[in-house]
Fold these 4 entries.
Entry 1:
Amino acid sequence: MHPQLFFFLFITFSFHPCSSQKNIQFKSCAPLPFSCGNFTKNITFPFSIDGTSPGCGLPDLHLSCTSDNLAQLMMNNVSYQVKNIDYEKQIMTIANMAYINIDDSCSYLSINTSFDYSLFDYTGNDHNLTYYGCSIPLNWSSSGFYELCNTGDYYYFIAVAVGVFDPLGYDYCDSRYNVSIGKPYSMDDLMKVLADGFDVMWKPGKDWCDKCVRSGGRCGFDESKPNDPLCLWPNGVEILAGLFELPKLVARLPHRPKSSTQLTYEKFNMGVD
Ligand SMILES: *[C@@H]1O[C@H](CO)[C@@H](O)[C@H](O)[C@H]1NC(C)=O
Ligand SMILES: *[C@@H]1O[C@H](CO)[C@@H](O)[C@H](O)[C@H]1NC(C)=O
Ligand SMILES: *[C@@H]1O[C@H](CO)[C@@H](O)[C@H](O)[C@H]1NC(C)=O
Ligand SMILES: *[C@@H]1O[C@H](CO)[C@@H](O)[C@H](O)[C@H]1NC(C)=O
Ligand SMILES: *[C@@H]1O[C@H](CO)[C@@H](O)[C@H](O)[C@H]1NC(C)=O
Ligand SMILES: *[C@@H]1O[C@H](CO)[C@@H](O)[C@H](O)[C@H]1NC(C)=O
Ligand SMILES: *[C@@H]1O[C@H](CO)[C@@H](O)[C@H](O)[C@H]1NC(C)=O
C-alpha cells in the first residue's frame, strides 16, 4: 500500500479531538535557549531547564548550570557534565563530573558511572572500564594490575592483562567499579578519556519524537501519562501514542483533503519519509 495513503488512514481513524492534554500547547513547548560556559543549545523535549513549561520536558532530564559554568545533569544522584546533545541522533555526550578537576584524594575513583537505564541506553560508541579497590598494594608486574591511585591505605587498580585473576576473590579487594568511556584508553590518557565522557542514547521519544519534529510538531507529554507520546501542532492537534505503528488498513485512495484539519495531516504526512 502507498505509504502516504496508509498514513492518512491511520490518522483519520485515530484522531482524538477531545484529548485531555489541551493545556500543553505547541507554543509553550518552544525550544528554550540554554547557555552555560561553552555549552549552548536550544532545549526541547525530552530535556528541561528552569523555565520549561510542564509537559514539555521531563523533570528527570533537567539541565542546570554549575558555578563552574558546566552544564549539569543529575542521574542516580551522580552529577554529569553534559558535553553535547544531538537531537537528530538522540545521543547525548556526558562525563562524570568526578573526573573533572581531579585532586589527589582518589575519591573520584570511588564512583560508578552507571546511568539510569530507564532513561538511557548505551550506544555502539561506548566501552567499559573496570577497576578494583583493594586494601593492599598489588604487585603490578607479577599480577597484571596497574595502580591508578592510592590514598595511602586503599588502592585502585585496573587490570591491564587479559585473563588475570579476579581480585574480588581475595579478602583485600572489596570493590569493583564499572565505568563507561567513549573510546579505548591507554594508561597515559586514561584520565582524559574519563573526563571526555561517553555517549548515551535517550529513550524518551525514541520511536516518535523525530517524526513529530520533522512534521513540524513539537514533542511533549501528559504528566499523568508521561510515557505516552504527544505530538503538538501549531493548530492544537495532538497525536497520541502508538499512531506510528498501527496495523495496515486496506482502503481506497481518498480524495485530496480539503478541511484545515486534513491539511495539517497532509503536512504531517510529508514530514514522514
Ligand atoms: C571552553 O572551550 C575552551 C576552548 O575550547 C576551553 O579552553 C575551555 O576550557 C572551555 N571551557 C569550559 C567551561 O568548558
Ligand atoms: C536556537 O534557535 C534559534 C531560533 O530558531 C536560532 O536562531 C539559534 O541559532 C538556535 N541556537 C542554537 C544554539 O542552536
Ligand atoms: C542522593 O543524595 C542526597 C543528598 O546527598 C541523599 O540524601 C540521598 O539519600 C541520595 N539518594 C540516593 C538514592 O543515593
Ligand atoms: C558495557 O557493559 C554493559 C553492561 O554490562 C553492556 O551492556 C555493554 O554492552 C558493554 N559495552 C561494551 C562495549 O562491552
Ligand atoms: C613484584 O614482583 C616481582 C616479581 O615477582 C618482584 O621481583 C618484585 O620485587 C615485586 N615488587 C614488590 C614491590 O613487591
Ligand atoms: C559498581 O557497579 C557494579 C555494577 O553495577 C557493582 O557490581 C558494584 O558493586 C558497584 N560498586 C560500588 C562500589 O558501588
Ligand atoms: C562490569 O564490567 C565487566 C567487565 O567489562 C562486565 O563483565 C560486567 O557485566 C559489568 N557489569 C555491569 C553491571 O555493568
Entry 2:
Amino acid sequence: MQARGLLNGCALILLFIIQTATGDTRCIQKGGKCQENSIPCDNYQSGLCNGGRTRQCCISNQVADKRCMDKGGKCQQTSVSCSGAYRSGLCGGSASRKCCVPQSVFIISILASSGKLCTDANFQTVGRVVFGEARGETARGQLAVAYSIVNRINHSGYPNTLNAVVNQKTAGGAYQYETLGVAAHTKAWNVTKKGNTQEYKNAIKASSDALCGRVSDPTTCATDYCAYDPCSATNSNKYWTATNKIPIGRHYFVCRVKASG
Ligand SMILES: *[C@@H]1O[C@H](CO)[C@@H](O)[C@H](O)[C@H]1NC(C)=O
Ligand SMILES: CC(=O)N[C@H]1CO[C@H](CO)[C@@H](O)[C@@H]1O
C-alpha cells in the first residue's frame, strides 16, 4: 500500500515536469523563453508557456525578425520608404513595424517558384539589350543592366511582362532601350551571335544570371540607369522618387519608389 502510494506521487511529479516541459516547448521552438511578463522584453506571446497567466513567452525582435530576414527583407517602421514591398506578420514589435522586401528579392522568389523568366528565348531578348547598351562593361556592370530590365517587370511603373518591358516605347515612339532602334546594332548582335564571340557569351551570361536569379542584384532594385549624372532617367520627378543611386562601371543606377503626395 505504502509503496504504491509513493509510486503514484512520483508519477504525478513526473507528469507535472513533462507537462511543464511540453508547454514551454512551443515557446522554445519559436526561439523564445518562458518568463514572468513583468520582465522587460520586445514581444510577449501568450499561450506558449505552462504556468500562470503572467508566465509568457518572451521573443526578442532579433529572433522575431528572422522570418523577415529569411525572405531577404529587413524589419523597419513603415514610415521609412521601402524600395520593394512591405509584408506583414514577419517582424516583431508593433504592428507598424513590417518587413521591407526589396523588389529584386520578389523577382528571385518568383523565379524560384515559376522559373518562367529563365528561358533561352529570354536570354536572347535581354542579351541583345545588354550587348547593345553595356558590352564594354565589366561582368557586374552588365549584370546590373540585365537586372534593371528584370526589375521593371515587377515594378508598378512599367509593363509586367519581359517582352513588353523590352519593347516599351517612349511617348515619342522611340524604344526605351535605344540600341533596339539602331539597325547597325541589330546587325552587330547578329554577327557576334553567329560568331559565338566572348562579347556574346558575356551578354548571355549576365542576362541568364539575372533572369534565373543565379547571382544577386548588385543594384538591389534598380529599374533605370544613365551614363551620366544628373540625368532625367535617374532623377526624381513628380511621380517617382529615385533612390539607392549607385555607380557601377560607366552607369549610374537608381531604384524608383512612388513619390508621395
Ligand atoms: C538579324 O537577324 C535577324 C534574325 O536572324 C533577322 O531577322 C534580321 O534581319 C537581322 N538584322 C540585321 C540588321 O542583320
Ligand atoms: C508591382 C508588382 O507587380 N508587384 C508584385 C511583385 O511581386 C510580388 C510577389 O509575387 C507581388 O506580390 C507584387 O504584387
Entry 3:
Amino acid sequence: MVLSPPASRHGRHAALLLLLLPPSSRGCFHATIKRHLDSSCVVRVNYSRPSCVSSAPQMPVYVLHALYLDERRAFMRSQLRSLCAEDVSWMLCLDRPVVASLDAAAFRCLHPCFAHNRYNPAHEPHISNGTLSLALKHKAAYVDMELRNLPAALVLEDDAVLPPTLWPILAAAAPPADATILFVGSYSLWPGGSLRAQAQRQGAPATAYRQSLASRPPVVHVLRRNASDWPPILGAVAYVVLRRGARIYAHTPVLSQADVGISYLDAAPQPQPEATTTTGT
Ligand SMILES: *[C@@H]1O[C@H](CO)[C@@H](O)[C@H](O)[C@H]1NC(C)=O
Ligand SMILES: *[C@@H]1O[C@H](CO)[C@@H](O)[C@H](O)[C@H]1NC(C)=O
Ligand SMILES: *[C@@H]1O[C@H](CO)[C@@H](O)[C@H](O)[C@H]1NC(C)=O
C-alpha cells in the first residue's frame, strides 16, 4: 500500500474545524463516551500465572475488540497469555450496531463531521459506522485510562501481532517527558508483507516518537512528520498513550479514521503556525 504524505494543512483544517464546532458538540464527547464505559464494555483480565516470570516491567494494555471476532480474540488472548500480561482491559463497547442505534445528538457529539483530507477524497460527510466504531473504541480506551489516572497504557487493535520481547522493548523506550504517543507498530512496512497489522517485526524500529513529536505551546504536543519517514500514516494498531496524550485525545471527537486521527488530526485543538511547517509533501 503506497500512500503519499498528506499536506500539512490537514492538521490545521481539523484544528479550525474543532474551533468552529458548536459549543454543545465540544463538551459532550467525553461525557457520551463515559456513559458507555460500564462493566459489559470494559472487561479486565490478568493473564499472569504463578509460572510467569516477567522479563521487564509491564504496562496496562487495552485491546479494542468486537466479540463476534472469535479468531482474533483467541489469537490475541494466546499472545497476552504468553506475555503474562497482568493488566488487560478488553474494550467491547461501541460496536457497529451500537453506533447505528445512536440518536442524532449522540452521533453528532461523537462524530460531528469527517475532516476533509487526503484520506477522505470524496468529501464524505461521515465515516462508515464500522470505522467510527473502531475509532470510538480507541477513544474509550483513553477515557478509561484517564479515569484510572494511568501514566501510560499500550493500546492494541485486536489483530496486532506482538513480539515475545514486547515488555523489554517498551521498557527500553524513553519518550520525552512531553510526548503524547509512542508508536509501536504500523501496517506492514516491509516488502512481501501483507496488510496485516504488525505490532513489531524484527529489525523494525520499536518507536517512532523521535521522528514525530514536536512541541506546540502551551501544552499540546502534536505529530510532526519528517518527509523521509515511512509510512506517512502511523498505524493505530499498537501504540503507547502517555498521560498527556490521553488527556488530549479523550476529549476530541472523532473527525477521521483512528490512524489518521492519531497521526495528524486529533492532537491539534489549537492552530499553531510553527507546528504546520514540516509535514512531508
Ligand atoms: C496478576 O496475577 C499475578 C499472579 O497470579 C499476581 O502476582 C499479580 O499481582 C496480578 N496482577 C494484577 C495487576 O492484578
Ligand atoms: C449508521 O449509524 C447511524 C446512526 O448512528 C444510522 O442512522 C445509520 O443508518 C447507520 N448506517 C448504517 C449503514 O447502518
Ligand atoms: C528525517 O528522518 C531521517 C531518517 O530517520 C533522518 O535521517 C533525517 O535526519 C530526518 N530529517 C529531519 C529534518 O529530521
Entry 4:
Amino acid sequence: MGTKGAATLLAILCSLLLLSLSCGCLAPESEGDQTALLEVDTSWKAARKIPQTLFGLFFENCALGFEAGGPYTPSNIDPWSIIGDESSIYVKTERASCFSRNIVALRMEILCAKCPAGGVGIYNPGFWGMGHGFRKELIHMLVDLKPQFLRFPGGTFVEGILLRNAFRWRETIGPWEERPGHYGDVWNYWTDDGLGYYELLQLAEDLGAEPIWVFNAGISRNDQVDTTAIAPFVKASISLERSEWPLILYKDVLDSLEFARGSAKSTWGSVRAAMGHPERFPLKYVAVGNEDCDNTKPFYQGHYLKFYNAIRGAYPDIQIISNCDGSSEPLDHPADLYDFHIYNSANDLFLKKDTFSRTSRTGPKVFVSEYAVHVDGDTSKGSLQASLAEAAFLIGLEVNSDIVHMASYAPLFVNDNDRKWNPDAIVFNSWQQYGTPSYWMQTFFGESSGAVIHPVRLNSSYSGSLAASAITWQDNEDIFLRIKIVNFGPNAVNLTLSATGLEAGVNASRSAVTVLTSNDSLDENSFDDPLKVKPVKSGLPSAAEEMQAMLVPHSFTSFDLALDEYGELAADM
Ligand SMILES: *[C@@H]1O[C@H](CO)[C@@H](O)[C@H](O)[C@H]1NC(C)=O
Ligand SMILES: *[C@@H]1O[C@H](CO)[C@@H](O)[C@H](O)[C@H]1NC(C)=O
Ligand SMILES: *[C@@H]1O[C@H](CO)[C@@H](O)[C@H](O)[C@H]1NC(C)=O
Ligand SMILES: *[C@@H]1O[C@H](CO)[C@@H](O)[C@H](O)[C@H]1NC(C)=O
C-alpha cells in the first residue's frame, strides 16, 4: 500500500512536471511577437573577404531518366510518351541504327491517314541537347544563381553500384552518336552519355564557373580494385572494352586532365581540339572519388595517395579534394580540400548551422559538396521549411568561410517523370520547369562569393529560431550592406537592426528588402503553382544605420542597404 501511495505521488509529481514543461514549450507561441536586436560591426578591420568560390553547383547526372538505348532490344523507352493515341502511331526500338557503337534505333510508324489536329509523334520528358545546346530556361535558372563552380558528374553516378557501370570519361567524348552510353545502375536508367565529360566542361565554361571534375577512384558502392592494381586508373597504357572490366581497368585520370588542359597538339588535347575546343579548359579542381572514405572501402586511402602523387607531380596547381571528413579530426593524408556531405531533417539542419565554428582552422579547407534537407522515406518535394533550414546552414557557412571554401546543394535537377530522389532544386519535364523553395533560397547567396563579411551579434530570447549574417557586396554601380536573417520559428519578430562603423550614409531610395515566405511552412511549389513560394522584393524606405523591421513567421529576409560614396571601400574590395 505504502509503495502504491508513493507511486501515485510520484505520478502526480511527474504529470505536474510534464505540465509545467509543456507550458514552458508553449509559452513563446502565446506571447505573440518576439523582439530581437541585430548588431552589425561594419568596421573595415573586423571584415573578412569571402572566398570567390564559396557558392556553386553540383550537377549529378541522376534522375534525368529520359534516354533510351543500350545493347538490348526492345530498349526501355519509358518514360517517353506518345503524342496522339495508340491507334495513330506505333513505336518500338530495334537494332537498326547506322551507328555501329550505338545500334538501337527508335522506329515510329504513323498509322493514321488523317492524323489528329495536335499531330502524332513521341516526346521525351526532357532534353538537354548536345554541346552548347542546353535548354535555355533551365540554364538561365543556373545563371541566376551566379554559380562560382560546377561539380560534376556526380555523386554516386561516378561510383556506380558496380565498377563496370561507373562513369568512364573516354566513352563520353567524341561524336555523340558513336558514344556507347552506359547503364547508370545507381539511378537505374540507360544514359546515352550525350552529356559527357566534354559537355560538362563546356557547361562550366558557359556559366563562368570553375569546373570540378569528380573521377572514379577505382571504387564503386559494392566493389573496388585492389591498390596494387590501381596503376591503370592513374596512367592508362591500354584501352579495353567495358565488357572486360573490372579485370583490367583503364581509368586514366592523367589522360582526362590532358584532355581538359593539354595543348591542342598533345595526344588528348588534340581530341578536344577536334571536337571544336582548341582552347584549354581551366580545370583547377579534382575530387578523388565520391563518398569513398568509410570503413567499407578499405582501399580508398591507398588509392588516394597514388592519385594525389600522380596529379600533384603532373599538375602542381590542381587542387585535390579528398572524400575523408576532416571536420572533427585532422586528415592523415595531404589534401587541399575535403568533402563534407550533409542530409538532415529541417530541424536538425537548422541546429547544425554552427557545425564549422568548432572545426580546426589549419589544414585543408572544407567543401560542403552536398547539402540538403532530406530524410529517407520522406516524400516531401521541397518545402519552405526545408529552404529556411538550408538558408540558416548556408549563413553558418558564410560566417565560417575562413575555413569553408565551397558549398553546393544536391541534387540540382529532377525529371518530374522519373523522380528518383526528393527534394531537388529544379524540377522539369519536356516543356515546363520550376524552382523549389530551396532553389529560390540559393538566389539570396549569389552575391556572397567574393564579398566581404562582417561580424554580427544577435540579442533575443528567441535567438534559437534565428540565424543572421551581414556582407558588403557590389554590383556594377552600387555597394550594398546586405543583412540576411532566417526566422525559422512560428512567431513574428520585431527586429532592430543596428550597423556600427559604417563609413558611408545609407541611401534609402536605392535600398530594398527581399522576403521568401508563405502562409504555411510546409508549402511547396508545383507545375500548377510554380511560384507559390518565391522571393518578393520591395523598396525599403525605412533603410538606415539604425532601423526597425518586422520579420514574418517562417521567413528568410534579405535587407540590402545601399551605401553612398563608398568609393574608397570599393577600391579595397
Ligand atoms: C540584450 O537585450 C536585453 C533586453 O533587451 C538587454 O537587457 C541586454 O543588455 C542586451 N544584451 C546585450 C549584450 O546587448
Ligand atoms: C518594435 O519595437 C520598437 C521598440 O523596440 C517599438 O517602438 C515598435 O513599435 C515595435 N514595432 C512593432 C510593430 O511592434
Ligand atoms: C540616393 O540615390 C538616388 C539614386 O541614385 C540619388 O538620386 C540620390 O541623390 C541619392 N540620395 C542621397 C542622399 O545621396
Ligand atoms: C495566403 O493567405 C492569404 C489570405 O488568406 C491569401 O490571400 C493568399 O493567397 C495566400 N497565399 C498563398 C501563397 O497561399
